[in-house]
């Protein structure tokens, strides 16, 4: 039997952060930035010898299209005693996410036609500003960090992307765009800010794929 949890409760919010990270990785891109508008309901089930499973109902919005929200149901299963395996996430999005085909194509063409590979740092800057031409790069970082958050979360963590410290485009011989990111993830429970190196491949037809990621030693 699953037990109702007040959505404001920390474990519910932590499970929602995992679901959002997974969704950003699977469905995010340079033209779509999904964020949580509201956690509507949460239930938890303790499954003997397996782990804890959370059932969530989320309301999401796209930062590029604030007027439109979509509902989403998610199941997040944390495996008992396992630090090494990522939570299992299953998601169903109700309704249509806005099409990003045009924006994706435009971004892809723009990046492919750059004389010099794109390099940028500190997105957003210390005042919270993101130059318009770097917004797609930040949204791709949402997808990249979404993967890291999904893979590395436990029931006792809640990660949040604080900043893109550095990003560098790497020219490839195939059709993919490659971005090497250093992202700062803020872990809200311990209050640590951890730098991660993430290599993201992206193509309009294939979406985002993380090819490698590892945590850097914390500065200092």
Automatic annotation (TrEMBL):
Q: Which GO terms describe its molecular function?
A: metalloendopeptidase inhibitor activity
GO cellular component terms given for this protein: extracellular space
Q: Coiled-coil intervals in this record?
A: none
Q: Which InterPro entries match?
A: CYSTATIN_LXN, Cystatin_sf, Latexin
The Cystatin LXN-type domain covers which part of the protein? 1-102, 119-220
Q: What keywords does the record list, in alphabetical order?
A: Protease inhibitor, Repeat
Q: Where does the chain cross the membrane?
A: none
The UniProt record lists the keyword Ion transport: no
Signal peptide interval: none
Pfam families the record matches: LXN
Q: Can you tell me which family this protein belongs to?
A: Belongs to the protease inhibitor I47 (latexin) family.
Annotated protein name in UniProt: LXN protein
Q: What is the organism of origin for this protein?
A: Copsychus sechellarum
